[in-house]
């Protein structure tokens, strides 16, 4: 709240942040009104919510500040004698393009150009007050007017009350009228703005003295107002006087109530400038082109400077509402209305499954029931488990006119993730913050309780390899390949007394923190860099990679890195089609941290796929320049990766019919049998189509990946400690290697020695580890990793790091984690594990079941039949899996031939992991699974 003895602003909800959230919801309603207007008028496009029809658009008007402007009003650009180029849009106020002779209000919007870096927008209507006192009333009225005319009165009474309904209708009735000419009308701002140190004012645009009257309004010509002003401008210039009315006091000239007029008796107008529209022909070619350009403009009273900051509830709401409305109109943002039947059916089913799930979980229902159950659960999670952590503007601040969206970003992914959402260019960009799926439990007093090293040794250590027999190690490499595309926290350099996390080694043990360094009494872990502390005191971290499905692990997440990887349209590969290396022997690719042979296999395959695709695009479109070929191939490969993960990898690790059908529905739409189609039609029409055939949807919260998402995707038990490699032709073993032999700088030499096809075959016939306790790779419990910013390698126990990271990022402990995902709390140790020794160890380590770390609980929890990980982890998955597709413009509204090319869409449709392997290693055709994905075990060749 800003206040002094004379005037004040009061925020809805008691604070600027609470008001921002209220306005966000009102903005979504504004978009719904646009959709209703579109349907009602049978329009092909979304129009402005109000002032849809322009009457005249001029871009060469001049605003001339008076030489005798009073001294106290000489604020900012309003300097005596100054003159500025001004764009003008005169319009009808209705949200549909109605005939000019219909009763309506009229509007005037000015954009004053002071310099290339300074603009000011002034918006006015030809009635001195708003029908609405505040934003809530404004939206309630607009919603009622957009619907059935028979329901206007009851809807208004229900929302604002009887007396306010009568007042609002009376004001609209007085303001909506026929006019003879928009050049002879007076226009009022209706809301106050700050005029520097002069304080609040309202402003007017009134015809200059001597303005010729117009002929009587036509009753038959739908465009007579345009014709009248066009004729007037062909004969001469048009002048308006710009007046301001200074604030008097809160009673006579209130700031927050837009329905009270600032009368000239209470606030006498003062002449400050003259608007001159020069003589011209606005119907000539130049004038018609100008109209098109100005109609695309987004006018907002917040396009200004702090000297002229808008004031009051209605004005504060206008920044959010105008932004949403214009983004919707310009196809920068999207909105779909959920049918009433879906809302009713969804609530009924949600209530039904709340009862059913007390006795029978979703995975024990038949597949149809399971899918419906998951759909209702996903809706619940979307409504309650998406938390935005970005700093948002509250209260709103003036801005300069936002720059135009660069044309190239409409058809290409940026490397830093910006402009995926054209209405919020920074959403999902590099260094955006990790969101949350639940309120953090940030307990510094419990960071070291119990000792994470003890937990690692007692509960994580792999005594004997426990295989996951339904998968192969290609699947293990795939998920690491994906996670590197999605999430990455920036670390401080190890060795900082301020930022190192220090964990005493129990029982007088020692730990070597650096390769070649001394054994120390404590394990030291590099701390994560904190973006900021939230208002609630927990740390917020930045994601230093892009969370979109954009192949950044292959292509890089900066333009500079991408250029280093390119060779024309192709990616750089050696003559024998392997990844190049740097001076340290490390493979050069988009992301090579925690590098090992499985990652090298994936990166090599998809670099080769990119290059083959470039050749196909060049043959099909020989006139394309190399950059277009590269960018299109990058789009296609990224989408193909998303498809493989959605309909191949995930059903392989969550091997049930329910999941297989549900995830294919994510890409292709619901099954076509009539019963499923009817059920989906009743529950969620959106799911009848695959996500690539829908519009982007962030489900009310700006897109990000979350800290909890990063926590559940720690699937390191998948990695074996040792590997047997074979010759694919003979089936004979060739090398038996430890994980340490095939990671880091030695990876490239081993890949060249073994050859890609033998690596794929050998990993394809081998099982990964099961995601469970007592199965963490020993190799990762003493893992040598390059220290960022230093030539000295650090040695880490990754299982300890995983536990420590969750605690210090405020990820709730397992029982709180379950409860936040709407699962019952665990009451007894035996619910976590059926193994008495494991229960004994957990009880001894933790004391209280509520202290169990989330990663330990996720690995201890018995998964549903066919699942590779727990149902609790799966809750995060079902929330985020479709969100990664649904939020992405390039996987929804811009998944079309104009962007990808017809060849590109056909390539994605016809290809998958198996065809990619066969294209680059055709000799593996006999061993690949016939009826399963390439993530299922290959057929071993018997020597």
* End-to-end C-alpha gap: 79 Å
Poorly predicted sequence stretches spanning 5 or more consecutive residues? none
Per DSSP, what share of the residues sits in E-state strands of 2 or more residues? Answer: 5-15%
Percentage of residues assigned to helices: 25-40%
Q: Supply the CATH class of the domain at 12-329.
A: Mainly Beta
**Average predicted confidence as pLDDT:** 93
Question: Mind explaining what this structure looks like?
Answer:
The protein has 943 residues and is an alpha+beta fold. It has a domain at 12-329: Beta Barrel (Catalase HpII,  Chain A, domain 1), CATH 2.40.180.10. Helices cover 36% and strands 11% of the residues. It is built from 28 helices and 21 strands. The strands form 7 sheets. Strands 1, 2, 3, 4, 5, 6, 7, 8 and 9 form a 9-stranded antiparallel sheet that branches. Strands 10-13 form a two-stranded antiparallel ribbon. A two-stranded antiparallel ribbon has the order 11-12. The longest helix has 28 residues, at 626-653. The protein starts with 15 loop residues before the first helix and ends in a 23-residue tail after the last helix. The model has no long low-confidence stretch (mean pLDDT 93).
